[in-house]
């Protein structure tokens, strides 16, 4: 899977 | 938010503050790579542009602002206030060898071909290798002050804890970010050699010095 961006991480 | 993520963030914060305090208290940035610190400032700047576009949480915003401010404060102390103590002769890593491949990779492999996404991806890739000028400097001088090794330990621990955080999120939240995970793995691997020296030497009360 290409995955998705974890926007909540630092 | 899970325990790995929180301790990872706190470990990152500890690293940043240890470095700032070391420079401030000793009035010296000897042994610190200004180039690595500029790269980290660039990492935070390009990654946290979303401060202007989206609000995630108070925690998220506050931490981002603290990281950015500390990064620029560190760069200012090295190249401004305590410039006379900066060991530029030993800080000779060629950063263009990192920046050029990282820019190319960010343009080629990203989640979406959009300016903000490419900058975010650039920051992830750059962070994974931004410590190299610092590690290069230590290998060149053959030693590091103990406080500098504590800084490096917490900085390495942070991304290692994030790896556990990503495993957690994969299993419990169905989240998976291939770009962050691969870059995080690379970043952690770069610290492995240092972790070994830290545990076998520094934690036993010896100074970190490399064989000539």
Automatic annotation (TrEMBL), chain B:
GO biological process: protein retention in ER lumen; protein transport; vesicle-mediated transport
Pfam families: ER_lumen_recept
Subcellular location: Cytoplasmic vesicle, COPI-coated vesicle membrane; Endoplasmic reticulum membrane; Golgi apparatus membrane
Keyword Repressor included in the entry's annotation: no
Membrane topology field: Multi-pass membrane protein
InterPro entries listed in its UniProt record: ER_ret_rcpt (IPR000133)
Keyword list, A-Z: Cytoplasmic vesicle, Endoplasmic reticulum, ER-Golgi transport, Membrane, Protein transport, Receptor, Transmembrane, Transmembrane helix, Transport
Entry's transmembrane regions: 65-82, 94-113, 119-139, 151-172, 178-199
A GO molecular-function descriptor: ER retention sequence binding
Domain of life: Eukaryota
GO cellular component: COPI-coated vesicle membrane; endoplasmic reticulum membrane; Golgi membrane
UniProt record similarity statement: Belongs to the ERD2 family.
UniProt-listed PANTHER family: ER LUMEN PROTEIN RETAINING RECEPTOR (PTHR10585)
Name the record gives this protein: ER lumen protein-retaining receptor
Organism of origin: Paramormyrops kingsleyae
């Amino acid at each position: 899977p290409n995955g998705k961006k974890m926007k909540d991480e630092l | 938010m899970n325990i790995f993520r929180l301790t990872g963030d706190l470990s990152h914060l500890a690293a940043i503050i240890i470095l700032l305090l070391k420079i401030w208290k000793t009035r010296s940035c000897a042994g610190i790579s200004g180039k690595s610190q500029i790269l980290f400032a660039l990492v935070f700047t390009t990654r946290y542009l979303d401060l202007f576009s989206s609000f995630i949480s108070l925690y998220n915003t506050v931490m981002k602002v603290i990281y950015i401010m500390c990064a620029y404060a560190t760069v200012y102390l090295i190249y401004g206030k305590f410039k006379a103590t900066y060991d530029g002769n030993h800080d000779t890593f060629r950063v263009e060898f990192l920046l050029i491949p990282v820019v190319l990779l960010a343009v080629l492999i990203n989640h979406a071909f959009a300016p903000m996404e490419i900058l975010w991806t650039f920051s992830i890739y750059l962070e994974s290798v931004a410590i190299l000028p610092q590690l290069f400097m230590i290998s060149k001088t053959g030693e590091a002050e103990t406080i500098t090794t504590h800084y490096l330990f917490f900085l390495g621990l942070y991304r290692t804890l994030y790896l556990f955080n990503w495993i957690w999120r994969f299993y419990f939240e169905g989240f998976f970010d291939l770009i962050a995970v691969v870059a995080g793995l690379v970043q952690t691997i770069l610290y492995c050699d240092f972790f070994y020296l830290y545990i076998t030497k520094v934690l036993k009360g010896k100074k970190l010095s490399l064989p000539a």
